[in-house]
Amino acid sequence: MNYAIINDESLKKYNTLKLASKAELIAFPFNSQGVKEVFNNFKDRKKIIIGKGSNILLSKEYYNEDYLFINLKLMDDIFIEDELLYAEAGLSLSELAWFSIKNNIKGYEFLEDIPGTIGGAVIMNAGTHRGNIGQFINNIKYYDISKDEIIEKRVKNGDFNRRTSFWDKKDVVILGCEFKIIYGDYLESLNELLSLKKERFKKQPRNYPNAGSVFKRPIKDGKVLRVWKYIDKVGLRGYSENDAMISSKHTGFIVNKGSAKYEDINKLIKIIKEKVSKECDLELELEWKII
Asked: Among 27-41, 124-138, 179-193, which is the least confidently predicted range?
Protein backbone atom coordinates (compact mmCIF):
# COMPACT_ATOMS: atom_id res chain seq x y z
CA MET A 1 0.00 0.00 0.00
CA ASN A 2 1.46 3.33 -1.08
CA TYR A 3 -0.36 5.59 1.38
CA ALA A 4 -1.05 6.07 5.09
CA ILE A 5 -4.39 6.74 6.79
CA ILE A 6 -5.25 8.79 9.89
CA ASN A 7 -8.70 8.54 11.49
CA ASP A 8 -10.64 11.28 13.32
CA GLU A 9 -7.99 13.90 12.80
CA SER A 10 -8.28 17.59 13.69
CA LEU A 11 -8.03 19.80 10.61
CA LYS A 12 -6.92 22.85 12.57
CA LYS A 13 -3.27 22.32 11.62
CA TYR A 14 -4.21 21.65 8.00
CA ASN A 15 -5.84 25.04 7.30
CA THR A 16 -4.03 28.35 7.66
CA LEU A 17 -7.15 30.09 9.01
CA LYS A 18 -6.90 27.65 11.95
CA LEU A 19 -10.63 26.93 11.95
CA ALA A 20 -11.70 24.16 14.30
CA SER A 21 -12.79 21.21 12.20
CA LYS A 22 -12.32 17.45 12.12
CA ALA A 23 -12.11 14.76 9.44
CA GLU A 24 -13.18 11.16 9.83
CA LEU A 25 -10.40 10.14 7.42
CA ILE A 26 -7.23 11.66 5.94
CA ALA A 27 -5.02 9.83 3.43
CA PHE A 28 -1.33 10.60 2.90
CA PRO A 29 -0.01 9.16 -0.40
CA PHE A 30 3.71 8.37 -0.52
CA ASN A 31 3.98 8.72 -4.30
CA SER A 32 2.02 8.98 -7.56
CA GLN A 33 0.90 5.36 -7.36
CA GLY A 34 -0.39 6.05 -3.86
CA VAL A 35 -2.65 8.82 -5.20
CA LYS A 36 -4.06 6.41 -7.75
CA GLU A 37 -4.63 3.74 -5.08
CA VAL A 38 -6.44 6.16 -2.77
CA PHE A 39 -8.89 7.17 -5.49
CA ASN A 40 -9.55 3.54 -6.41
CA ASN A 41 -9.88 2.27 -2.84
CA PHE A 42 -12.27 5.00 -1.64
CA LYS A 43 -14.54 5.46 -4.66
CA ASP A 44 -17.62 6.06 -2.51
CA ARG A 45 -16.21 9.19 -0.82
CA LYS A 46 -15.96 12.79 -1.94
CA LYS A 47 -12.23 13.54 -2.28
CA ILE A 48 -10.77 16.81 -0.97
CA ILE A 49 -7.14 17.59 -1.83
CA ILE A 50 -5.27 19.82 0.61
CA GLY A 51 -1.67 20.98 0.68
CA LYS A 52 -0.60 23.60 3.20
CA GLY A 53 -4.25 24.56 3.71
CA SER A 54 -4.00 28.12 2.42
CA ASN A 55 -6.58 29.58 0.06
CA ILE A 56 -9.34 27.34 1.49
CA LEU A 57 -12.29 27.90 3.81
CA LEU A 58 -13.61 24.87 5.70
CA SER A 59 -17.40 25.03 5.92
CA LYS A 60 -18.04 22.04 8.23
CA GLU A 61 -17.11 21.29 11.81
CA TYR A 62 -16.97 17.57 10.99
CA TYR A 63 -16.37 15.83 7.68
CA ASN A 64 -17.94 12.39 8.09
CA GLU A 65 -17.63 9.11 6.19
CA ASP A 66 -18.90 10.81 3.04
CA TYR A 67 -15.56 12.62 2.70
CA LEU A 68 -11.90 11.73 2.29
CA PHE A 69 -9.18 14.35 2.73
CA ILE A 70 -6.00 13.71 0.76
CA ASN A 71 -2.84 15.46 1.88
CA LEU A 72 0.22 15.34 -0.40
CA LYS A 73 2.74 16.54 2.20
CA LEU A 74 4.76 13.28 1.92
CA MET A 75 5.22 13.85 -1.81
CA ASP A 76 7.84 16.58 -1.43
CA ASP A 77 10.91 15.38 -3.33
CA ILE A 78 13.00 17.89 -5.29
CA PHE A 79 16.14 17.30 -7.36
CA ILE A 80 18.13 18.42 -10.41
CA GLU A 81 18.79 16.07 -13.32
CA ASP A 82 20.02 16.80 -16.85
CA GLU A 83 19.91 20.55 -16.22
CA LEU A 84 16.24 20.43 -15.23
CA LEU A 85 14.64 20.87 -11.82
CA TYR A 86 12.02 18.33 -10.75
CA ALA A 87 9.66 18.78 -7.79
CA GLU A 88 6.69 16.86 -6.44
CA ALA A 89 3.31 18.48 -5.80
CA GLY A 90 3.49 18.38 -2.00
CA LEU A 91 6.62 20.55 -1.85
CA SER A 92 5.99 24.05 -0.51
CA LEU A 93 6.71 27.09 -2.65
CA SER A 94 9.06 28.28 0.08
CA GLU A 95 11.09 25.06 -0.19
CA LEU A 96 11.23 25.44 -3.98
CA ALA A 97 12.57 28.98 -3.65
CA TRP A 98 15.24 28.07 -1.08
CA PHE A 99 16.35 24.98 -3.02
CA SER A 100 16.76 27.17 -6.10
CA ILE A 101 18.87 29.72 -4.27
CA LYS A 102 21.11 27.04 -2.75
CA ASN A 103 21.75 25.73 -6.25
CA ASN A 104 22.44 29.16 -7.78
CA ILE A 105 19.17 29.15 -9.71
CA LYS A 106 17.43 32.51 -10.11
CA GLY A 107 13.86 33.57 -10.79
CA TYR A 108 12.00 31.73 -8.05
CA GLU A 109 12.60 34.24 -5.25
CA PHE A 110 9.09 35.75 -5.43
CA LEU A 111 7.49 32.38 -4.60
CA GLU A 112 9.12 32.04 -1.16
CA ASP A 113 6.51 33.94 0.82
CA ILE A 114 3.44 32.63 -1.02
CA PRO A 115 1.77 30.05 1.25
CA GLY A 116 0.92 26.74 -0.34
CA THR A 117 2.36 23.85 -2.30
CA ILE A 118 3.35 23.32 -5.92
CA GLY A 119 0.19 21.32 -6.64
CA GLY A 120 -2.18 24.08 -5.61
CA ALA A 121 0.05 26.74 -7.16
CA VAL A 122 -0.13 25.05 -10.55
CA ILE A 123 -3.92 24.81 -10.46
CA MET A 124 -4.36 28.53 -9.79
CA ASN A 125 -1.13 29.73 -11.45
CA ALA A 126 -0.01 31.32 -8.18
CA GLY A 127 2.16 34.40 -8.24
CA THR A 128 2.59 38.07 -7.50
CA HIS A 129 3.10 41.19 -9.61
CA ARG A 130 6.64 39.85 -10.08
CA GLY A 131 5.49 36.81 -12.03
CA ASN A 132 3.66 33.50 -11.76
CA ILE A 133 4.69 29.89 -11.40
CA GLY A 134 3.41 28.87 -14.83
CA GLN A 135 6.13 30.77 -16.66
CA PHE A 136 8.78 28.48 -15.17
CA ILE A 137 7.22 25.08 -15.92
CA ASN A 138 8.13 22.84 -18.87
CA ASN A 139 6.17 19.72 -18.09
CA ILE A 140 3.48 18.63 -15.62
CA LYS A 141 2.68 15.19 -14.31
CA TYR A 142 -0.89 14.67 -13.10
CA TYR A 143 -3.46 12.01 -12.31
CA ASP A 144 -6.59 12.09 -14.48
CA ILE A 145 -9.27 10.77 -12.14
CA SER A 146 -11.92 9.90 -14.71
CA LYS A 147 -9.40 8.05 -16.91
CA ASP A 148 -7.62 6.54 -13.88
CA GLU A 149 -4.41 7.41 -15.67
CA ILE A 150 -1.15 9.20 -14.79
CA ILE A 151 -0.34 11.66 -17.57
CA GLU A 152 2.66 13.85 -18.41
CA LYS A 153 1.83 17.00 -20.39
CA ARG A 154 4.23 19.40 -22.04
CA VAL A 155 3.22 22.96 -21.18
CA LYS A 156 2.13 25.06 -24.15
CA ASN A 157 0.94 28.62 -24.73
CA GLY A 158 -2.47 29.14 -23.18
CA ASP A 159 -2.12 26.51 -20.46
CA PHE A 160 -1.57 29.25 -17.89
CA ASN A 161 -3.55 32.46 -17.56
CA ARG A 162 -4.15 35.00 -14.82
CA ARG A 163 -4.87 32.99 -11.63
CA THR A 164 -6.01 29.95 -13.58
CA SER A 165 -4.62 27.08 -15.65
CA PHE A 166 -5.51 24.25 -18.01
CA TRP A 167 -5.91 22.02 -14.93
CA ASP A 168 -8.24 24.34 -13.01
CA LYS A 169 -11.76 22.91 -12.62
CA LYS A 170 -10.66 19.63 -14.21
CA ASP A 171 -10.96 16.28 -12.42
CA VAL A 172 -7.21 15.91 -11.86
CA VAL A 173 -4.55 15.81 -9.16
CA ILE A 174 -1.21 17.51 -9.86
CA LEU A 175 1.64 15.13 -9.00
CA GLY A 176 4.79 17.00 -9.95
CA CYS A 177 6.51 19.40 -12.35
CA GLU A 178 9.62 19.86 -14.43
CA PHE A 179 10.95 23.40 -14.01
CA LYS A 180 13.28 25.55 -16.09
CA ILE A 181 16.72 26.38 -14.76
CA ILE A 182 18.35 29.77 -15.21
CA TYR A 183 21.56 30.09 -13.24
CA GLY A 184 22.34 33.24 -11.31
CA ASP A 185 24.24 34.50 -8.29
CA TYR A 186 23.44 33.01 -4.87
CA LEU A 187 23.81 36.26 -2.94
CA GLU A 188 21.84 38.35 -5.43
CA SER A 189 18.95 35.87 -5.27
CA LEU A 190 19.13 35.73 -1.48
CA ASN A 191 19.03 39.52 -1.17
CA GLU A 192 16.06 39.74 -3.53
CA LEU A 193 14.16 37.04 -1.63
CA LEU A 194 14.73 38.72 1.73
CA SER A 195 13.77 42.12 0.33
CA LEU A 196 10.50 40.76 -1.09
CA LYS A 197 9.74 38.96 2.15
CA LYS A 198 10.34 42.11 4.18
CA GLU A 199 7.97 44.13 1.98
CA ARG A 200 5.21 41.54 2.28
CA PHE A 201 5.63 41.39 6.07
CA LYS A 202 5.25 45.17 6.20
CA LYS A 203 2.00 45.14 4.22
CA GLN A 204 0.26 41.92 5.19
CA PRO A 205 -1.25 40.76 8.51
CA ARG A 206 1.02 38.15 10.07
CA ASN A 207 -0.18 38.46 13.65
CA TYR A 208 -3.38 36.44 13.04
CA PRO A 209 -4.15 33.29 11.02
CA ASN A 210 -5.40 33.98 7.50
CA ALA A 211 -5.75 32.18 4.18
CA GLY A 212 -4.21 34.76 1.87
CA SER A 213 -6.07 37.23 -0.34
CA VAL A 214 -9.81 36.66 -0.10
CA PHE A 215 -10.77 37.93 -3.56
CA LYS A 216 -9.25 37.81 -7.01
CA ARG A 217 -8.14 41.13 -8.42
CA PRO A 218 -10.96 42.28 -10.72
CA ILE A 219 -10.42 43.67 -14.20
CA LYS A 220 -12.49 46.68 -15.24
CA ASP A 221 -12.07 48.66 -18.46
CA GLY A 222 -8.90 46.71 -19.15
CA LYS A 223 -7.31 47.63 -15.82
CA VAL A 224 -6.40 45.25 -12.98
CA LEU A 225 -7.82 46.76 -9.78
CA ARG A 226 -6.65 46.46 -6.18
CA VAL A 227 -9.46 44.96 -4.10
CA TRP A 228 -8.33 46.42 -0.78
CA LYS A 229 -8.88 49.98 -1.99
CA TYR A 230 -12.56 49.31 -2.60
CA ILE A 231 -13.04 47.52 0.72
CA ASP A 232 -11.43 50.54 2.36
CA LYS A 233 -13.65 52.87 0.38
CA VAL A 234 -16.84 51.26 1.75
CA GLY A 235 -15.56 51.61 5.32
CA LEU A 236 -14.95 47.98 6.25
CA ARG A 237 -11.36 48.19 7.53
CA GLY A 238 -11.29 46.37 10.89
CA TYR A 239 -14.94 45.31 10.69
CA SER A 240 -15.60 42.13 12.71
CA GLU A 241 -18.10 39.32 13.09
CA ASN A 242 -17.20 37.70 16.42
CA ASP A 243 -13.55 36.60 16.02
CA ALA A 244 -13.48 36.98 12.23
CA MET A 245 -12.13 40.37 11.18
CA ILE A 246 -11.39 42.24 7.98
CA SER A 247 -7.76 43.04 8.63
CA SER A 248 -7.07 46.56 9.82
CA LYS A 249 -3.58 46.28 8.29
CA HIS A 250 -4.60 45.05 4.83
CA THR A 251 -8.29 44.92 3.98
CA GLY A 252 -7.72 42.29 1.30
CA PHE A 253 -7.38 39.76 4.12
CA ILE A 254 -9.81 38.25 6.61
CA VAL A 255 -8.15 37.05 9.81
CA ASN A 256 -9.07 34.77 12.69
CA LYS A 257 -8.54 36.55 16.02
CA GLY A 258 -8.94 33.31 17.95
CA SER A 259 -12.12 31.27 17.61
CA ALA A 260 -13.70 32.42 14.36
CA LYS A 261 -16.14 30.04 12.71
CA TYR A 262 -17.07 29.46 9.09
CA GLU A 263 -20.37 31.32 9.57
CA ASP A 264 -18.53 34.43 10.82
CA ILE A 265 -16.10 34.47 7.90
CA ASN A 266 -18.76 33.72 5.33
CA LYS A 267 -20.86 36.61 6.66
CA LEU A 268 -17.91 38.98 6.20
CA ILE A 269 -17.43 37.76 2.64
CA LYS A 270 -21.08 38.45 1.84
CA ILE A 271 -20.97 41.90 3.46
CA ILE A 272 -17.86 42.86 1.46
CA LYS A 273 -19.32 41.65 -1.84
CA GLU A 274 -22.66 43.37 -1.28
CA LYS A 275 -21.23 46.74 -0.19
CA VAL A 276 -18.56 46.88 -2.92
CA SER A 277 -21.16 45.90 -5.53
CA LYS A 278 -23.69 48.48 -4.35
CA GLU A 279 -21.37 51.40 -3.63
CA CYS A 280 -18.60 50.84 -6.20
CA ASP A 281 -20.42 48.97 -8.97
CA LEU A 282 -17.78 46.24 -8.79
CA GLU A 283 -18.40 42.51 -8.55
CA LEU A 284 -15.80 40.61 -6.51
CA GLU A 285 -14.90 36.98 -7.14
CA LEU A 286 -13.77 34.78 -4.27
CA GLU A 287 -10.20 33.50 -4.59
CA TRP A 288 -10.58 30.98 -1.77
CA LYS A 289 -12.17 27.61 -2.34
CA ILE A 290 -15.00 26.79 0.07
CA ILE A 291 -14.85 23.14 1.15
From this structure: 124-138
Please tell me whether residue 236 adopts helix, strand or coil conformation: coil
Are the C-beta atoms of 90 and 96 separated by less than 8 Å?
Answer: no
Catalytic residue among 32, 213, 217, 247: 213
- Contact call for residues 258 and 265 (beta carbons, < 8 A): no
pLDDT digits (tens, 9 = 90+) for 124-157: 898 887 789 999 999 999 999 999 999 999 999 9
Q: Which domains does the chain have, with CATH numbers?
A: 3-71 (3.30.43.10), 78-200 (3.30.465.10), 219-290 (3.90.78.10)
**Dist CA 53 CA 116 (whole Å):** 7
Count the neighbouring beta carbons within 10 Å of the beta carbon of residue 65: 9
Number of other CB atoms surrounding residue 49 within 10 Å:
21
- Give, in order, the Cα–Cα distances in Å from 54 to each of 104, 120, 150, 236, 290: 28, 9, 26, 23, 11
Pairing status of strand 164-165 against strand 160-161: antiparallel
Given the DSSP bridges, would you call strands 164-165 and 56-57 parallel, antiparallel or unpaired?
A: unpaired
Catalytic residue of the set 37, 59, 163, 277: 163
100 is catalytic: no
- Decide if 274 is catalytic: no
87 neighbors 118 (Cβ within 8 angstroms): yes
Would residue 163 show up in a list of annotated catalytic residues for this protein?
Answer: yes
